[in-house]
Amino acid sequence: MNIKPQLILTMLFSLVAFEAYAVSFNCKKAKLRVEKTICSNQLFSDLDDLLAFSYQKALANTRNKRSLRRAQRSWLYKRNRCRTNRCIKHTYKSRISELKKLAGNKYRSISGEYDRSSGPISADLTIRELKNRMIQVTGYAVWVGNVATGNVNTGELNGSFPLKRNKVYYNKDGCRLTIAFLKNALIISNDKFSCGGMNVTFNGKYRKVAN
Prior knowledge:
The protein has an eight-stranded antiparallel β-barrel with strand order 1-2-3-4-5-6-7-8. It has two domains: 29-106, no CATH class; 112-210, Lipocalin, CATH 2.40.128. It has helices at 5-18, 33-39, 42-61, 65-80, 85-103; strands at 112-116, 121-129, 134-146, 151-164, 167-172, 175-182, 185-189, 204-210. The longest helix is centred in the first third of the chain and has 20 residues, at 42-61. Mean pLDDT is 82; it is low at 1-22. The chain has five helices and eight strands; from the N terminus they run αααααββββββββ. By secondary structure, it is of the alpha+beta class. The termini are far apart.
């Protein structure tokens, strides 16, 4: 049987992509359809990490740990019955919201959408708490000199780094900066124009606009 080289490359890429995302369960042992979907989808993988993180915070804050574990098993059964991506997303987000409430004042999530709109350079960030105190940072900044002449430069952030106290030290592909988290805000500093085109900087204060 002759197999085209392009087909072989496609099959190999699919296998690599499937194992690309680490979640709270072992993807190599995934058997259920919903588990395989989570393992192959970056968003669902991030939500699974955030749920695991939120669950541990809630577990540490509750007196009735047996009840919380039982509720979590019930939620897992509900998740495994999902047949669409929309169902998976909704199930995760609703449970994460419940767990955050159970965590009470001991848990203040820094996950969310952040915006910096002042000045000539607009920028926005998405922060996601993962397990083991890892923080995923994605962001986009744009400097507009003259749209008519095409004098527009952009910059992007996309990486995961450990949270050290209230700070993340971003360092990837020559882009270095420091993110300090405040209450419903964050401050980026030490970006020496190394994270995008000319005049692009992520420095400044960002306000949290969405969870």
